[in-house]
Every structure is written in C-alpha cells, then in structure tokens.
C-alpha cells in the first residue's frame, strides 16, 4: 500500500502516495477507456504518475473516473471537486465538495532563476533571504494550487495571483488572492513539508 501521507481534514480527502516498485499498476484496469488515446505516448514516468492517481481514486471512490475538459481533470460522476498533482515518485489527489487546489514541488535552487516570472514586489518583501529557495518554492506552489481552482488563459502568476505574507515556521491559514479588473477572490491555504518537498493545499 503506497499511501505516504494523509492530509485529509473535515472539508476534503487529501491523499499523497509514493511509488513502490512492488505495487501493481495495471493500466488496463486503472485507465479510463476515454483516456486510452491520451496516454498511449506518455513517458513511462508520467504514466506511472497518472496510474498512481487512478489507484488513489479507486481506493476512495471505486466507481468514479477522472476525465478531462481542456486538459483540466474532473470527476465523473461530478458529485465532487478534485485536484491532482504529482512529482515522481509522489502523486496526490484531493476530493472535496467545494473547489480545491493542491500542488507538490521539490525544493531546488534553480527556482531563483525564474522568480521574475511569478514573484511580485509585495511578495519579495517578506522573503527571508537565508530561506529564499524555500519561500520561492512555497509561493510558486501556492500559485499553482490557486491556478487549479481559478484559472484563465489571460492571467499570469505574477500579476493575477497574490500570496500574502506568511512565515515558514507556521505555514497555515495563508491568505491568497486571485484578481483582475473584475475579480477579487480570497482563499486560505496551508503548506505541509516532507523530505525535500512542499505540498500546498488551497480551498
């Protein structure tokens, strides 16, 4: 059983699994018929990530399946909202009655090279320099989770997704905002840490 962590709360079931070579991942059993064509050319690692997510789903809702609308996954029957994330060897699935976004990211110093693409001026001000990589990774991951809830092809992570000041020693109830000229929606988030990864949950 490759369950690694259970981050569920009273609002959502949130399960993180870790790939185990001994675990059977049968694509014929796990992949929905509607997705056969989609996955036929997947890289083996990407396929394992997809299969892990399906195995999580089977453990919770065996009669449901994950389909796609413009590359966005949704649950069928549509009686729950879902969010999916993976970074091999990990994969996670969130199932909730309301909108939810999850993301997993490894800590990597290379993120400093792309911070100009997602970090706004206000966010830069509360980053502790000695923990820069950790803060950048968490902010990036929070915005990825936000995007899964509230996204548009016309929005940018830098301009339209905002993370309010927080501290790494208490990464809970973090305020996040999605906004443009017509929209301003506030969300709360939490961050979990394990090994060399962060896991963000926005709902």
Could you describe the 3D structure shown?
It contains five helices and eleven strands; from the N terminus they run ββαααβββββααββββ. The radius of gyration is 17 Å and the shape is globular. The protein has a five-stranded antiparallel beta sheet, covered by helices on one side. A hairpin with a 5-residue loop joins strand 1 and strand 2. The protein has 203 residues and is an alpha+beta fold. Helices cover 24% and strands 33% of the residues.
Strand order of the largest sheet: 7-11-10-9-8
Q: Which whole number gives the mean pLDDT?
A: 94
Given the C-alpha coordinates, what overall shape results? globular
Biggest sheet architecture: 5 strands, antiparallel
Spans of 5+ residues with little confidence (pLDDT < 50)? none
- End-to-end C-alpha gap: 28 Å
Q: How big a fraction of the residues is strand? A: 25-35%
**Helix/strand class:** alpha+beta
* Helix-strand sequence: EEHHHEEEEEHHEEEE
Q: How many β strands by DSSP?
A: 11
Task: Report the radius of gyration as a whole number of Å.
Answer: 17 Å
Features:
single chain, 203 residues, alpha+beta, five-stranded antiparallel sheet, 11 strands, globular
Furnish the topology, listing elements before pairings.
Elements: E1 3-6, E2 12-18, H1 27-30, H2 36-39, H3 44-60, E3 65-69, E4 72-76, E5 81-87, E6 90-96, E7 101-106, H4 121-125, H5 132-149, E8 161-163, E9 174-179, E10 184-194, E11 197-202
Antiparallel strand pairs: 1-2, 2-6, 3-4, 5-6, 7-11, 8-9, 9-10, 10-11
């Amino acid at each position: 059983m490759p369950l690694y962590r259970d981050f569920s709360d009273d609002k959502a079931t949130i399960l993180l699994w870790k790939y185990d070579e001994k675990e059977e991942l049968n694509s014929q059993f796990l992949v929905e018929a509607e997705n056969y064509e989609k996955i036929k050319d997947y890289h083996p690692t990407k396929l394992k990530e997809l299969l892990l997510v399906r195995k999580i789903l089977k453990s919770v809702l065996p009669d449901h399946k994950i389909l796609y609308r413009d590359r966005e996954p949704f649950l069928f029957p549509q009686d729950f909202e879902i969010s999916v994330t993976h970074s091999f060897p990990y994969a996670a699935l969130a199932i909730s009655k309301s909108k939810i976004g999850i993301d997993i990211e490894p800590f990597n110093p290379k993120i400093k090279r792309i911070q100009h693409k997602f970090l706004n001026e206000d966010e830069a001000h509360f980053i502790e320099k000695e923990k820069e990589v950790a803060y950048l990774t968490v902010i990036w991951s929070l915005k990825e989770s936000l995007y899964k809830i509230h996204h548009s092809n016309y929005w940018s992570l830098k301009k339209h997704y905002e993370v309010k000041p927080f501290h790494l020693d208490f990464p809970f109830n973090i305020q996040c905002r999605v906004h443009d000229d017509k929209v301003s929606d506030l969300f709360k988030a939490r961050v979990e840490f394990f090994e060399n990864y962060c896991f963000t949950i926005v709902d």
